[in-house]
Design a protein that fits this description.
Oligomer: single chain
Number of helices: 12
Distance between the termini: 21 Å
Helix content: 25-40%
Radius of gyration: 24 Å
Strand content: 25-35%
Structural class: alpha+beta
Low-confidence stretches: none
Length: about 400
Amino acid sequence: MFVDVAILGAGAAGMMCAAHAKGRILVIDHARAAGEKIRISGGGRCNFTNLHSAPHAFLSANPHFAKSALARYTQWDFVDLVDRHGISWHEKTLGQLFCDTSAKDIIAMLRSLMQQNGVDLRLQTTACDFAKTPDGFVFTIETNGTRQQVTAARLVVATGGKSIPKMGATGLAYDIARDFGLAVTDTRPALVPFTFPEKRFAALSGVAAPVRVTTGDTSFEEALLFTHRGLSGPAVLQASSYWREGMPIRVNLTPQSDLLQDLKDRRNTAGKRKLTNELSRVLPARLVEHLTPELALEGSLADQSDQRLRHLAHQLQHWELIPSGTEGYRTAEVTLGGIDTNGLSSKTMEAKSTPGLFFIGEAVDVTGWLGGYNFQWAWSSAMAAADALG
């Protein structure tokens, strides 16, 4: 079989590229259905982009690499596409856009666009034995035990990273890149919960609070969720992309208030109240109970000196913790790192050393913040490649 374009991966990036590229297009995916990570994203409603998408929200060894693709196909372009297909949506916090009904609406839109573009979609199909010949890229596909050789004038790799292996994620993109002489940066789970030894926060499982989590010089102010294994929630997931083993994280449990001044004021007006009861006005009661032995939260407000209140406020606003690790690729939303951008054109996503070979989406060393940014990178990088394939 000969095709103009073969695309490995029927996820967000792969389908978007297939929907807009020109020529005879073959899309291959080993999954039973296309867009499985889209389907489960955003609690089943797909956080499909972010109104604030911009290069500063993406991590890469080359922070400038994503600028071209993001500028040429923006969040507004994708919103326009969604609107044209009659998909209703709403904005949640921090510019996050979600489908009103279901993530399946995004999958259906992409499937429809692929069908209109005459795309040949092969699901439950694997591909192997890639080689470059004068005629193009030659490889073998297998479906239900039947093998077939494919020659593609151009090859697009959109198989993603290693996150959520139970959905079939593998390191295939990295293997193909290395086979063709491209470098791959170190990869690690990102947007992933932290774990702590000895079920440190198991008793608090289910408790959530608005906090500011800082790792290194980077801070995120969103919700924190205590879990049986450790810490999760948006602020923690964001911080995980910047964290490395052995690093502490700092948690400000009251980022929106001047806790010291508030405690002093309440001491003057309600000095007889227990310190724990007063703290439960601004923190979850179960968290205050958990912290009572560690911080010696005893007595009434009137019993607390200025020095004691100052120390307590500092402890609660600079709570330092050292995670033992993360939950790993099992629950990571994305993979940090990937195919070294030095080997790719930022305008087309084509490999500099291998004309006709493209890498898009999560497989590339570009990782967005939580909240629709990684989908936007999928759309933008896919369109960069599709334009070059046009």
